[in-house]
Amino acid sequence: MSERIEVRAKGFEKVEAFVSEVLVTLGQVVDRDEVLLRIEAEKVSFDQSAPVAGRIAELLVTKNGDVHEGDLLVVLERTAIELPRAPASAPAAPRVGVSSDYHASPWIRSLARERDLDLSQIEGTGPHGRIVEADLLSRAPSVRETPLPSATEVHTPEAKLVLVPPSTESRQLSTLQRTVARAVTRTWTEVPHVTQFDESDVTELEAFRVALNREPRKEGSKLSLLPFIVKACACALRAFPDFNGSLAGEELTLNRDVNIGFAVDTGDGLKVPVIQQADRLSVLQIAGEIARLGDGARAAKLISTDTRGGTFTVSNLGGVGGTAFTPIINGHELAILGVSKAELKPKWDGAAFVPRLMLPLSLSYDHRVINGVAGARFIAHLGALLTDLRRALL
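Predicted structure:
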């Protein structure tokens, strides 16, 4: 008869955690107290060990997967008959930082590899014998601990480079940064991204924007290019409805509303407030929403409805610089537009080279739904709208 033993996550209640290492495979026979996997929770590492000897019957986690207090991680099968283990083989040559006979975090293992240290030969002074950075420093003395070489020693072939520990400073990511990091990691690993690059001639659009800003208006803020870009995106999404959808499994849902999010740098990380029904708003109304939502994001005063329902996102880095980048799709959307800094370039008009203001565009899209031809057509259509927004009236 066999007995099934559940191994559940414990020791980090109400703390975000993920699996940093999986040290066993399905069907493997393990001893009691053998480390099955390691979990990172904020700045603390946890070893999840086998409570009894047995065979791995179920392995329910993967590397980098999220875990919570009480989650079922591994199921062990213990039998009354002694479980056979794999025959012993000849001892392998020692490798740096790969032995399972010691406890060390991934950071310590990385430091050991950089310094060519064998962790299996180092005695840990941390809790439960864990190897900490101070244990590595004892094997790699600093310059002050090593006598200075004489002039003759400096030029001898036997002179060796002294390992100096790097000067570092650690800080914990904020809650917003951790949330964003998890979201973009999930999207990047689950969605096959393709990025299409192009540029649009916005010479006339920029002249129109400057002229509008010279006119007296009740609104005090000046118009930037972003409201025009959002308006053009809203019109393009109406012309290409597949870009305004979401994918769940193998079912594509097309959204009736065009709700466009825009990335805001809050100083503590990025937030993406959403302009609801942007296709029904004028450029001036969109500018007002951008000002209201942007101020709310930076002051941490957004409400839940200000960030929900997005169907497309614009990430504008034009005020910072750069020529192009590959934006990561936001949430369950199918596409995102990246905007870089506009630049004057010489363009041939059929008779001579003339200076034109060119705006770089970077369109990332979900290749499961959108193919390259559709991506190229969308960004070309968007570029034409930005070149002459009168096309939006057609």
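Summary: The domain at 2-79 is CATH 2.40.50.100 (OB fold (Dihydrolipoamide Acetyltransferase, E2P)).
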